[in-house]
Design goal:
The chain contains 3 helices and 8 strands, in the order E-H-E-E-E-H-E-H-E-E-E. A 4-stranded mixed β-sheet has the order 1-4-3-2. It is α/β, with parallel strands linked by helices.
């Protein structure tokens, strides 16, 4: 058994797709129309068997409340692994990405927290050697 798909609730699916692919570097994996919304997933472009991220519309009241509460409390929706947090921070900042926490050493890990422009905070992290 393996983790196949995780969901991130987003304000606007097309905007999220643009951000996650063009800014963060994911690849679109699935895009299936479903009435007013889409089954829309992105994946690590370098790993065919990677867990997909479903960019779920924030249409359900519980999803809206959950995402808003996490963002208001400064809690990231998920953690994305990077090879170098400082490099990723510099590259993303140059692309206009807003960070709520700069690269910070936290014992064995370096983290930073960014705003995904879709209603969520995301943490980037790398375990130090």
């Amino acid at each position: 058994m393996k983790l196949q798909t995780v969901s991130i609730f987003v304000d606007d699916q097309q905007h999220a797709l643009d951000f996650y692919t063009q800014t963060l570097g994911f690849r679109k994996a699935a895009d299936v129309p479903l009435g007013d919304h889409r089954w829309l997933t992105v994946v690590d472009p370098d790993r065919e068997d990677a867990t997909e991220i479903s960019l779920e519309p924030k249409a359900h009241p519980a999803a809206m409340a959950f995402a808003a509460a996490l963002a208001a409390d400064g809690i990231p929706m998920c953690v994305l692994g990077v090879d170098d947090v400082h490099e990723a921070h510099a590259r993303l900042t140059a692309q206009g990405v807003s960070f709520t926490q700069p690269p910070t050493e936290m014992g064995p890990v370096t983290i930073a927290v960014l705003d995904d422009t879709c209603g969520n905070l995301l943490q980037i992290a790398h375990y130090n050697d």
